[in-house]
């Protein structure tokens, strides 16, 4: 892995370059951006997509899902045989399907680090972003070629936890642990915006409301691609959530049934305790 | 205000005593607890309810709503005329109604600091808990007697922001900014607990899920009283939330309509930005 191209230099791509350097990667890191920009010191230089694809051993596609798919459709014709093409896209089924169709000369490895934030862009990139975070990997071939093993080792070295998974299980899993929480937060802001002035809410709320609205600040372009590419799993989970909250709403219909909320409350409490346990 | 009784020495009551001392209050602080306990150094001593009521100029009721109401029903017979009786209860209509019926010799001032956490109990009490937080007040008489003005001054001195409000507007407001976010978090854990093992979710999630589940860890005894005493306003807001999320769910029904989610997404984004702005 003498040359790595990072295509899409935002929160994830920028942080990846910084973390590779911090952890001792001494090869070339080429940054590829849609528009001209200043690259952080971790990058060796900027490059156009075609040159980066031709000169790199590893290409990491770090943009929203639809852009990753567009890059997958054109990258294989540009790379040397055996080049590793990997990505950090939030959903995996559509990407793996595109990769299986279009990547023949290169080797494709699906990837997804659980390191996103409600803010995006290079200005939020930082060292240590991946520390302690899960990084999903989806194989296209077995056994793993050396370049795959080497890249996954680097992912471990920057502090992430590699997790091997199938694309369908990945998408079902993130629908639960990432996409549902996003829409739950989004709907909270959308519903409240109809009932209360945000400045009044801000003046009167405690810490719970702003915390529950953090995800709602996320970027639509990223989420449009996620919602589109994982629509069915997300819809199913939102349906289950609506049923759970609808049950609670029903129990508010008279004073005597409020006590029935206790079961869901305590089930949720126990679930939250485990999820939120310090590692 | 030479003697203050704090009835219920948990997160709010304990922190109030610590903050009064930190900010220079030199009078007596009596702690009243249901069971024998060690009091933090901020307290002068523990006392039984009857003695504390008889000897204090200000009595602060710091327990869940139903216990506050039970204390209001018995306190007036014990106090000296003109004693300030105030509270930190999460809802105000039921409490103000009890106070208007039962408090005749004392002066009642409804109170509610927005300083709760998902954890409760004296072990989480700390100095500075009230700093920057709204502290709602509901009057029973005008103009404010000197003891009310003095207590509200102390609330400002410990860093809270006194906000005067009517009880109905208070309860409508906290249904939006506190009670809805709580149930949204509770339903998230309750729904996910049916679909995924919490240990697996913990291993695979990013930071969003644990943050969205923080409120779900809250104490049921506190929330049973809140849900019971503000049932109708909460039910209305949960209904509006279900409608907002239901609309989003409907837009996931086919790929072409996903773009329609944008409007709700951006409305929520803007709302969240204002609510979450640094003070």
Give an overview in words.
2 copies of one chain form a homodimer. By secondary structure, chain A is α/β, with parallel strands linked by helices. Chain A folds into 2 domains: 3-165, Rossmann fold (3-Layer(aba) Sandwich), CATH 3.40.50.720; 169-276, 6-phosphogluconate dehydrogenase C-terminal like domain (6-phosphogluconate dehydrogenase C-terminal fold), CATH 1.10.3660.10. Chain A has helices at residues 11-22, 49-55, 65-75, 93-102, 146-157, 167-193, 198-204, 208-212, 220-229, 231-251, 261-276; strands at 3-7, 28-32, 45-46, 58-61, 84-87, 107-113, 134-138, 161-164. An 8-stranded mixed sheet of chain A has the order 3-2-1-4-5-6-7-8, sandwiched between helices. In chain A, helix 3 runs parallel beside helix 4 (93-102) and helix 6 (167-193) crosses helix 10. The longest helix of chain A has 27 residues, at 167-193. At the A-B interface, helix 6, helix 7, helix 8, helix 9 and helix 10 of A face helix 6, helix 7, helix 8, helix 9 and helix 10 of B.
In short:
The structure is a homodimer of 279-residue chains. The first copy, chain A, contains eleven helices and eight strands.
List the helices and strands and how they pair.
Two copies of one chain form a homodimer.
Chain A: E1 3-7, H1 11-22, E2 28-32, E3 45-46, H2 49-55, E4 58-61, H3 65-75, E5 84-87, H4 93-102, E6 107-113, E7 134-138, H5 146-157, E8 161-164, H6 167-193, H7 198-204, H8 208-212, H9 220-229, H10 231-251, H11 261-276
Parallel strand pairs in A: 1-2, 1-4, 2-3, 4-5, 5-6, 7-8
Antiparallel strand pairs in A: 6-7
Helix pairs in contact in A: 3-4, 6-10
């Amino acid at each position: 892995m003498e040359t790595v191209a990072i295509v899409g230099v935002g929160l994830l791509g920028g942080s990846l370059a910084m973390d590779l350097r911090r952890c001792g990667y001494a090869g070339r890191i080429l940054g590829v951006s849609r528009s001209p920009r200043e690259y952080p010191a971790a990058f060796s230089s900027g490059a156009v997509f075609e040159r980066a694809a031709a000169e790199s051993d590893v290409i990491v596609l770090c943009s929203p899902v639809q852009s990753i798919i567009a890059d997958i459709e054109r990258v294989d014709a540009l790379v040397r045989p055996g080049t590793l093409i990997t990505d950090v896209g939030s959903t995996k089924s559509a990407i793996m399907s595109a990769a299986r169709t279009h990547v023949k000369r290169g080797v494709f490895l699906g990837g997804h680090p659980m390191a996103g934030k409600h803010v995006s862009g290079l200005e939020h990139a930082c060292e240590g972003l991946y520390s302690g975070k899960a990084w999903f990997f989806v194989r296209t071939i077995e056994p793993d070629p050396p370049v795959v093993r080497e890249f996954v080792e680097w992912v471990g070295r920057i502090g992430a936890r590699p997790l091997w998974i199938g694309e369908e299980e990945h998408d079902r899993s993130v629908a639960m642990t990432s996409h549902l929480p996003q829409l739950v937060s989004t709907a909270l802001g959308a519903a409240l915006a109809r009932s209360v002035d945000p400045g009044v809410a801000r003046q009167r709320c405690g810490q719970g409301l702003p915390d529950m609205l953090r995800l709602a600040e996320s970027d639509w372009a990223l989420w449009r691609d996620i919602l589109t590419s994982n629509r069915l799993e997300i819809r199913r989970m939102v349906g289950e959530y609506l049923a759970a909250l609808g049950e609670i709403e029903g129990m508010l219909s008279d004073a005597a049934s409020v006590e029935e909320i206790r079961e869901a409350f305590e089930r949720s409490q126990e679930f939250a305790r485990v999820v939120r346990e310090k590692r």
